[in-house]
Design brief:
With 295 residues, this protein is an alpha/beta fold. It is 46% helix and 12% strand.
């Protein structure tokens, strides 16, 4: 797909894996088709909801290959690249670009703490390895080495690092990023933020797991925000936020996979040693989906 500005709703896709460790490509392709027809603006495999940390490289590659084929160039595919080493991250990025991805969601995994220079060099190397746009991913709740404002500022000056997806719980941090980068980088929200609020302060959309189970409702909310109809947007936002809160009380991948199972997608349970959604969790997700008309 030709390079264009990323914006709108990018569902973080789940990774359906069978008992033998094979990617359930037919299920994933059907889910992608449903999401595209619901009007989403892009697809993001191998985000947190995609359980990237639990997948082998062949599984990751197969998932991205499947999503690119299912998208058929109708929407951009921004694939997650995560590693502890620069060499491996560069290899993944180049392969995903070769497979036809429109962008890279760059994720830093770390065992030992890293200096700001080390963090900068990791993301810079990914950006320099490919010609497609790079989205930085930051999640201080789970990452051992996170992106601070000074590093974000430096990275915003690398030509094809054009976006950042922030999964902190601090919406003020997003405004600080927007102020600091002065338009060189655009901000996507995560499910930890209230999307309408992020759009109000200058965000361009959100990359989030809940959009997998509520794509139509998410797109409607985005369109209201884009038109700056904030009153109507908040009316639509309130029940959707209840869905996000339900997911926040459980393992995110388990919740999204549980919700998709309720909707008829045989995506299975999270990969062990993660636990599947409890019976109580299934009922909570069922109620949340029913409340927004997604079940």
């Amino acid at each position: 797909m030709a390079d264009a500005a990323f914006h709108g709703v990018f569902p973080y896709l789940v990774s359906p894996i069978d008992a033998a460790g094979e990617v359930k490509a037919d299920v994933l392709a059907r889910l992608c088709e449903h999401l595209v027809k619901a009007g989403v603006h892009g697809l993001t495999p191998l985000g947190s909801t995609g359980e990237f940390a639990y997948l082998s490289w062949p599984q990751r590659r197969r998932i991205v290959e499947t999503v690119v084929a299912a998208a058929k160039g109708r929407v951009p595919v921004v694939a997650g690249v995560a590693s502890t080493t620069i060499a491996d991250a560069v290899m993944q990025s180049r392969e995903f670009e070769r497979l036809g991805c429109s962008g890279i969601l760059a994720i830093l995994e770390a065992y030992f703490p890293l200096s700001d220079d080390g963090v900068f060099e990791y993301f810079k190397a990914i950006a320099e390895a490919v010609a497609i746009p790079v989205v930085l991913y930051t999640n201080p709740n789970f990452q051992r080495s996170d992106l601070g404002l000074p590093v974000i500022d430096r990275l915003s000056r690398v030509p094809n690092i054009r976006y950042i997806k922030d999964a902190s719980f601090n919406t003020g941090r997003l405004l600080s990023i927007i102020n600091r980068v002065e338009g060189r980088m655009q901000v996507f929200a995560a499910s930890a933020h209230i999307p309408a609020c992020v759009m109000l302060i200058g965000g361009v959309g959100w990359m989030a797991g809940p959009a997998c189970v509520a794509p139509r409702q998410s797109v409607e909310l985005y369109e209201l925000c884009r038109r700056k109809d904030w009153g109507a947007a908040m009316e639509r936002q309130r029940p959707l936020w209840n869905l996000n809160q339900a997911f926040a009380r459980h393992n995110l991948a388990a919740c999204i996979k549980g919700g998709l199972e309720l909707q008829g997608y045989a995506v299975g349970a999270p990969l062990p040693p993660q636990s599947p959604l409890s019976p109580e969790g299934v009922e909570e997700v069922r109620r949340a989906l029913q409340a927004i008309g997604a079940l």
